[in-house]
Amino acid sequence: MLEVSGIDLRYGAAIALSEVGIAASPRKVTCLLGRNGVGKTSLLRAIVGAHPIVSGSIRWEGAEISRLPLFERARRGIAWVPQGRDIFPLLTVKENLETGFSVLGRHARRLPDEIFSLFPVLKSMLGRRGGDLSGGQHQQLAIARALVMRPRLLLLDEPTEGIQPSIIKEIGRVIAHLRDQGEMAILLVEQYFEFARELAQEIAVMDRGRIVLAGPLAALDEQDVRRRLSI
Predict the structure, then answer these.
(1) 2-230 has which CATH code?
(2) pLDDT in tens, 135-148
(3) Three-state secondary-structure class, residue 58
């Protein structure tokens, strides 16, 4: 289980996160909602170790990880699909996938068959360069690359951004499949309540660097959530 409590994060003098807490556990999707610029990506960067926190605690599987470097958190099973995807444009699809091997032991360095059952389009594109793919294919490749790492915690930063509706449905299907397998905790960052409502069991809403509403989806007032996203 991921347990984030009371974390503060700053960029110079600017406060990005203030006393933020959130949790994610296997068999569930926890969705972090909020408008642009409220701190959602900063929270993910704090969890994976891409930016140090000023104070607070980040615990994963019972251990404090807030001072560990990014690569060590990845070795502990934390995978991040960043906003913008960060695909290597000059590497082939196969080579992009194989970058996920970096946190695995030699015996585990193979592409799981499940990757191609979840994203069959990638199997026919293994020799194509990453830069030649469409936006939707980039997103599928970015998620697949994260899954190559065999993560136990998957962080997804707005996977539907700029994606055509048919690919959004495919991504939703993949997230639901991973959730239902019961082996992975998923923290999903989104702007759109409709997508979150289809997948999430837990919801947290962020505004101005703070969590302003949180709880099980079934217990929250949908209109209250929508109001906080539209202000």
Answers:
(1) 3.40.50.300
(2) 999 999 999 999 99
(3) strand
DSSP 1-41: -EEEEEEEEEETTEEEEEEEEEEE-BT-EEEEE--TTSSHH
Residue 110: pLDDT over 70: yes
As given in the structure block, the two tokens for residue 208 are 């101005």
Reported in sequence order, the residue ranges of 131-170 that DSSP labels E, i.e. its strands, are 153-157
Is the Cα dihedral 59, 60, 64, 69 positive or negative?
negative
What distances in angstroms separate CA 40 from CA 7, 153, 189, 215, one per listed residue? Answer: 13, 17, 7, 17
In the predicted structure, residue 231 carries a pLDDT above the cut 70: no
- What are the sequence ranges of the domains in the chain? 2-230
From the list 96, 103, 102, the residue with the least C-alpha distance to 119 is 96
Query: Does the reported pTM lie above 0.90?
Result: yes
SS3 213: strand
Tell me the pLDDT of the chain averaged across its residues. Answer: 94
Whole-angstrom CA distances from 59 to 3, 87, 102, 159 are: 5, 29, 23, 25
Q: Which two tokens stand for residue 70?
A: 């990014």
Count of C-beta atoms within a 10 Å radius of residue 162: 13
**What digits encode the pLDDT tens for the residues 69-85?**
999 999 999 999 998 87
Q: What angle do CA 180, 87, 17 make, to 5 degrees?
A: 70
